[in-house]
Amino acid sequence: MHAKQMMMALCAAGLAFGAFAEEEAAGYAWAPGEGLSYNGKPLLATELGLSFDSKFMSYGLVDNDEPILTPSAKVTFADWVELGVETIFDMTKYGKKAGYGNRAGRYQELDPGISLVHAFSGDDFEWLPTKVEFSIGYMYEYHPRSMGGGTGEPGDDTQFVSLEVGLPDLWIEPKFQYERDIDRDNGTYLQLEIGHTFALVGGEEGADPVLAVRPSISQGFGNAQRVRGYLCKDWDEEIPLDHAGLMDTCAKGELTWNIASGLSLSAYVAYYDFLFDSRIREASRGYEARGRNDESWNFVTGVALTASF
């Protein structure tokens, strides 16, 4: 075969192989940590998690002074719609000590929800200078009948709507959260968080670091309805604190180990206190059901295992 004919045959074979590879690359694809896609566009992603926390905290307040276990699951469709649920298990007899029944080994809360989520960038809108993560969601907070302390009465179920906006590509990674309780206390809670992720051990190009640490600090604010729904200015007479103000300040450090694609283990330590509003700080000292009335601060630790596929 002449050299010219050989070159033409090789080119034809290359084009045929390229067309075949392109056809194979097109269509459905799946990868751990990325989920199912079609022609490079996300279709379905699933995440399962299991976390352990030394205390159960709400807005810097202690709902359970002893450990809890929280399994969770979420499914994201087309990188836009997210369905999720988490269940909080009481691991000790703390509820009995606090006056609302022994729930050791049983779940104390079930939180199903649905959210509209997406990350926008300059590829979507030329005027965007950085990536913007956006989420607007709804959650139903269900409590089993055991929350009635053995009386058979159901606990106070409620519903929430929320909005979150984050700028993850900025150095300080700011994130803003809005939450509205539309059932129990009709209260509003706002939180602003800033932090930064430092890579301790880098990963492959374009992948998350193998080991990373993220210090952060956040500040919460509650309107009068939110504060009144949780705190009293006189706990003996149970007179609510009808006062809006700055609530919890949280300083947190989190270490994440990306074990493999789609599998990570993280651990954190957090410090909560009420630094900027003396009335809320004094009221927070009487909140914990067990009656720790001399401190407004708390240290909390936890670990979490997450698998995505």
Which characteristics define this entry?
Porin, twelve-stranded antiparallel beta barrel, mainly beta, 309 residues, two-stranded antiparallel sheet
Could you characterize the architecture of this molecule?
The chain has 309 residues and is mostly beta strands. It has one domain (41-308): Porin, CATH 2.40.160.40. It has four helices and 19 strands. The chain has helices spanning 3-25, 94-98, 224-230, 278-284; strands spanning 28-31, 35-38, 41-53, 56-58, 61-64, 68-77, 81-90, 107-120, 132-141, 158-166, 175-181, 188-195, 198-201, 211-222, 232-234, 239-240, 245-260, 263-273, 298-308. The strands form three sheets. It has a twelve-stranded antiparallel beta barrel with strand order 3-6-7-8-9-10-11-12-14-17-18-19. Strand 2 and strand 3 (41-53) form a beta hairpin. It is globular. The protein starts with a helix and ends with a strand.
Write the layout of secondary structure elements.
Layout: H1 3-25, E1 28-31, E2 35-38, E3 41-53, E4 56-58, E5 61-64, E6 68-77, E7 81-90, H2 94-98, E8 107-120, E9 132-141, E10 158-166, E11 175-181, E12 188-195, E13 198-201, E14 211-222, H3 224-230, E15 232-234, E16 239-240, E17 245-260, E18 263-273, H4 278-284, E19 298-308
